[in-house]
Amino acid sequence: METSSRELQAAEYLEKHQIKELVSYLTSALLFFRPALKTLGLCTEDEDLQDDGHKITLDKFKEEVNKRMKEIWSAF
After folding, report:
1. Separation between Cα atoms, residue 39 and residue 29, nearest integer Å
2. Other beta carbons less than 10 A from residue 29's beta carbon
3. Which residues have a Cβ under 8 Å from the Cβ of 13 and sit 6 or more positions away?
4. Hey, where are the domains in the chain?
5. Residues 54 and 61 sit within 8 Å (Cβ to Cβ)
6. Comparing 74 with 58, which gets the higher pLDDT?
7. Which of 16, 34, 47, 68 has the lowest tally of Cβ within 10 angstroms?
8. Cα angle 14, 29, 60; round to 5
9. What is the DSSP letter of 56?
10. Angle between helical axes of 2-16 and 19-28 (0-180°, round to 10)
């Protein structure tokens, strides 16, 4: 009985503080966003990416890619 109570408390804590969503977001950021920007030549190794505290949506990602591409191509 005590084990299921602790498991229920743990599950409620995870849900309340959105821990699963946070872990999912951090995993995506580590595995996708930074390498994608580097591959596209839009982020250098030493560049510090600023986080505005909000989730990075596909639209925000596309906007940033387009903005940086325009900056790159404006030199030509």
Report:
1. 15
2. 14
3. 19
4. 1-73
5. no
6. 74
7. 16
8. 105
9. -
10. 60
